[in-house]
Fold:
Amino acid sequence: MSKITIIGSGNIGLSLAKGLVKSGQYMPTDITLTRRNIANLQEEAAFGFRVGDNNAEAVLHAEIVVLAILPQQLRNVLEEIRGTVHVSQIIVSVVSGVSCADIKQVLGLDKLVVRAMPNTAIAIGQSMTCIATDTATDGEIKEVERLFESVGAVVVIQEDLMTSATALCACGIAFFLRAIRAASQGGVEIGFHAHDALKMAVQTAKGAADLLLQTKNHPEGEIDKVTSPKGCTIAGLNEMEHNGFSSAFIKGIKLSAEKAGGLYSE
Ligand SMILES: NC(=O)C1=CN([C@@H]2O[C@H](COP(=O)(O)OP(=O)(O)OC[C@H]3O[C@@H](n4cnc5c(N)ncnc54)[C@H](O)[C@@H]3O)[C@@H](O)[C@H]2O)C=CC1
Ligand SMILES: O=C(O)[C@@H]1CCC=N1
Structure:
């Protein structure tokens, strides 16, 4: 398997590293993790990952370099590695709001850059990852696709849709988590202990997602099967809509997409 260096071992960088190892296709020793404060990587080092705080050195032997720092940290990192990255490597950036061209401009090279937008479910092999590039070839895209397919589902999209993908999938996991939390709070109010209410809400959400994944049916078709005439489901659903449920979701996703597009210039 390719040697991978992940620069920026925070929430998404570590989730990716864990997911790759969990997939069984990578050994911890195939993966180098960097962070500014290496003391925060002791657990990962004990697990077998290679760890370091020298980005320039860490990219030297990698076949794939994953950039997983914040947009505002990217320029410094690129300046650190520009002398040691080489043309045979693929640079994969999960940084929101930064184009392939932006990265190549700072690196000052015509490097292979592929953008990937995963979500934190990558840690358990359940990410929805969108991939885009400007100049990488189909073969190079395939290599990155294979990497992310080992940790979830992958869709290759146009680069100009990457901020939309960020909102829908990367931020989206937080939106669905909040929806589950809200359902469990409703459950407590109607009589369940918190841990039972959460378990019920989680399994119900999983059932809903699996129904769509397995049947490929439209959500409204599945909703129609639940809403008995004059019944309690349609009463609750309509009350939610009167209070702006779909509208709130749509507006939140639109605002996240707008924000994602401007993160690099902030
Ligand atoms: N958190 C998420 O669910 C997702 C985040 N992203 C993107 O991934 C990037 C990272 O986000 P998070 O993991 O949430 O942030 P984070 O703040 O948890 O992680 C960033 C990590 O980079 C490290 N770092 C900073 N400067 C560094 C340097 N010079 N060298 C090495 N490491 C350095 C920090 O110590 C930190 O551990 C962002 O650009 C974000 O837009 C993309 C998809 C999902
Ligand atoms: O909130 C953020 O800015 C990052 C990007 C997508 C998920 N987390």
User: Anything to note?
Assistant: Strands lie at 4-7, 31-34, 50-52, 64-67, 90-93, 112-117, 127-133, 152-156. The chain has two domains: 4-162, 172-261. The mean pLDDT is 95.
